[in-house]
Write a structure and sequence with these properties.
Radius of gyration: 26 Å
Order of helices and strands: HHEEHHHHHHHEEHHHHHHHHHHHHH
Helix content: over 70%
Number of helices: 22
Structural class: mainly alpha
Shape: globular
Strand order of the largest sheet: 1-3
Length: 481
């Protein structure tokens, strides 16, 4: 027990001293402020049949629980998905592996630290809600129980699951990197729909509020809007006093499935955690006949041809090396997948092309583009690049061009289709979209020095924009409104 306590305390101190933790606390406080706008604001976030509740403790507590259940898993997952990686980077993994602490105890200690970090964030948001209630002055009576019980019943079980899922992803080799970040984003997207439509938990409370508003204001019966809704004089929002509800067995029943998920994730994490073991003898993997043939007959010859075409100028030589560096860590299967997507782009209908397969081809390149802008930092070659003969501007331009060419190759089938039917405007839109995506990858890489920000931000914009055709975020702009 003493070992567990010391491990939790040391891990919590190490991770809360990071800049990312402080930034997350500030970001969640600002998000809480934005989620509860004043009545005269130009937008509202939760409108039920044209009404929103007065900012009393009951309304703020339930709305904060909705905000946390929907958005805390995606924001905080990437904050805490570094517990095991920090031990590897700080070179304390060997010390931990040499201690008598079991895998079960170590994973449990990491889970407790993650839960404590997330609970700290929720506590800061609760304090922000109290200050907001006093600031807006719509109701000055503070009811701590009305504020706290939705967080305990609805949010805390979600925190337990997110804390364990983060450790489980880190324990599984093929999920601890960028691929796991993308996979978790789509898991979170699916969980939003299930949460809102559920018959228990937050979905049940939302249904209860809708029913109450419809009974109290029958002429105003309409729809519910969760998210940013622009309001004006014609679309004004009225307020009503909501007294709140008490926790019942129906709401408590939503905790059981989450506890089962927690137990399953804990077992998987303990099973796959390697206790920081390292295999000094690299495993020799046998490649198939098809891969050997493609490597010798196709890719090697293309590399020779590419070398001949680019050897005459310093910039083109640098461009070729930057392109090879982008593709170095990705297997031939990834290249075959990219080729397959291009072939599909040539033969499917234009509707399927612009709505599914072209965005899918760009999503296929997310993990490659995420390393753009911070390759030198990841490879510890910053000093070598700084003191090389090539200027920083030329290196950045070559790196940008390599990423641009890669994304253009992912859209080659679409470009040929659009050129064949003389859709030059669509080609111009593709060029603009490629430039935007590459610039976003470069900005995220330079700003954070990690791959994680682009691996999260790009799928989010990809899903809301090109897939859902949301205004201002559809950077492809190929689907007609």
């Amino acid at each position: 027990m003493n070992q567990l306590w010391q491990c939790r305390v040391a891990d919590f101190k190490q991770r809360t001293r990071q800049q990312s933790f402080v930034v997350t606390l500030l970001a969640m406080s600002v998000l809480t402020l934005l989620f509860f706008p004043s009545l005269d604001a130009q937008y509202q976030t939760l409108i039920i049949n044209g009404y929103r509740g007065l900012y009393n403790s009951a309304w703020l507590g339930v709305c904060l629980a909705m905000l946390n259940v929907l958005f805390l898993p995606i924001i905080c997952f990437y904050l805490i998905k570094n517990g095991l990686e920090l031990d590897r980077k700080s070179m304390t993994c060997e010390l931990i592996a040499a201690t008598p602490m079991s895998k079960l105890s170590f994973i449990f200690a990491k889970w407790c630290t993650n839960v404590l970090i997330l609970f700290t964030i929720v506590s800061v948001m609760l304090i922000s809600c109290i200050l907001l209630q006093l600031y807006y002055g719509e109701n000055y009576q503070i009811d701590l129980w009305a504020l706290a019980w939705p967080q305990l019943v609805f949010v805390l079980p979600v925190l337990l699951v997110v804390a364990l899922v983060a450790i489980m992803f880190e324990s599984i080799k093929w999920l601890k990197g960028g691929f796991g970040n993308v996979v978790y984003f789509f898991l979170w997207t699916g969980s939003i729909v299930q949460t809102i439509e559920s018959v228990s938990g937050v979905g049940a409370i939302l249904s209860a509020i809708e029913t109450e508003v419809a009974e109290r204001f029958p002429p105003q019966a309409g729809s519910t809007h969760i998210g940013v809704t622009v309001v004006d004089e014609e679309n004004s929002v009225n307020t009503f006093l909501w007294q709140g509800i008490e926790p019942t067995a129906q709401y408590l029943s939503s905790i059981l499935p989450l506890l089962i998920i927690c137990l399953s994730c804990f077992i998987i994490a303990v099973t796959f955690f390697d206790r920081f073991s390292r295999n000094p003898v690299p495993e020799t993997k046998q490649t198939s006949w098809l891969i050997n043939t493609l490597t010798r007959q196709v890719f090697n010859r293309l590399d020779v041809l590419f070398t001949m075409l680019t050897k005459h100028f310093a910039f083109t030589r640098l461009l070729r090396l930057e392109l090879k560096l982008l593709l170095k860590s990705h297997s031939i299967y990834w290249l075959l997948g990219l080729l397959t997507l291009n072939i599909i782009q040539l033969f499917i209908s234009q509707q399927l092309l612009v709505s599914i397969f072209l965005p899918l081809s760009w999503l296929w390149c997310v993990l490659v583009l995420s390393q753009f802008g911070q390759e030198e930092k990841q490879a510890n070659t910053v000093e070598l690049v700084t003191y090389s003969k090539k200027s920083a501007l030329l290196q950045s331009l070559a790196s940008y061009s390599a990423a641009w060419i890669l994304l253009a190759l992912a859209s080659l089938g679409s470009v040929l289709r659009f050129a064949a039917i003389a859709e030059w405007l669509l080609i111009i839109q593709l060029i603009i979209a490629i430039s935007f995506t590459v610039s976003l990858a470069y900005f995220c890489g330079v700003l954070t020095g990690t791959k994680r920000m682009f691996e999260v931000l790009c799928p989010a914009i990809w899903y809301i924009g090109p897939i859902q055709a949301a205004l201002y975020l559809d950077f492809l702009a190929l689907i007609a409104p």
